[in-house]
Amino acid sequence: xxxxxxxxxxxxxxxxxxxxxxxxxxxxxxxxxxxxxxxxxxxxxxxxxxxxxxxxxxxxxxxxxxxxxxxxxxxxxxxxxxxxxxxxxxxxxxxxxxxxxxxxxxxxxxxxxxxxxxxxxxxxxxxxxxxxxxxxxxxxxxxxxxxxxxxxxxxxxxxxxxxxxxxxxxxxxxxxxxxxxxxxxxxxxxxxxxxxxxxxxxxxxxxxxxxxxxxxxxxxxxxxxxxxxxxxxxxxxxxxxxxxxxxxxxxxxxxxxxxxxxxxxxxxxxxxxxxxxxxxxxxxxxxxxxxxxxxxxxxxxxxxxxxxxxxxxxxx
Length: 316
Fold this sequence. Notes:
Shape: rod-shaped
Number of strands: 4
Low-confidence stretches: 194-207
Order of helices and strands: HHHHHHHEEEE
Strand order of the largest sheet: 1-2-3-4
Number of domains: 2
Mean pLDDT: 79
Number of helices: 7
Distance between the termini: 99 Å
Helix content: 40-55%
């Protein structure tokens, strides 16, 4: 009877190990195939740089069968538990991201298959772990595997964004272009003030007044009433945003042209939710305001966190 029970126990352990080997292999191949197709469009990375980033998440699925095959069963079981626990929630987040933004069913299918293998690893490894005899200092080894899993989970949280990188890049560029545009508007005002003083028709107010329009933002039929060219061309729809310039009353008329004492410039996504989420606004204060609502931003919206006042150019 004792021999039969021992044989049954060995047979169960063999089946558990085979199941873990297959679950690890499926996870390894599925993740590799998914990211091999995804990496070329992910943060402008090459496959080589993407795979280097992926190795800490991918290689443990190769180490699990290796350890089980070389009879380091306890080490293989603890690593299987750690990987299954560490990557189950990240797998859900990545699949949700793909479902919302990419809709690539080949990538999603592979990641879903890999995600389904994580509970298999946890349950089978935990069952085998409980029934086996534990080696000396097993708690330290077990905690070591869990610490590695926690590290992977932390790395994922630090690198994960629910918004695609291309949209974040568009928003950063739009904010930067908005600052540069506002700076050029100030420069134009100073140069107009200097020209007016030189001709004896000074009409500057606080360093100058602002043109009625700019060729890049608000085309004007009268070239002499148009300011200098700016740094963006919204007609070309650069970086997923378009820009709008507006003068604020009161205005003055100088040399036959209408000019304003202050101004506002706004930037909005060309397609809300696809080319950007945030709308931006800047005025005479040179502070950038933003909103995530589908509307133009205004001065009542929060100032962009971490932003600094836009630089003011003054002529030499």
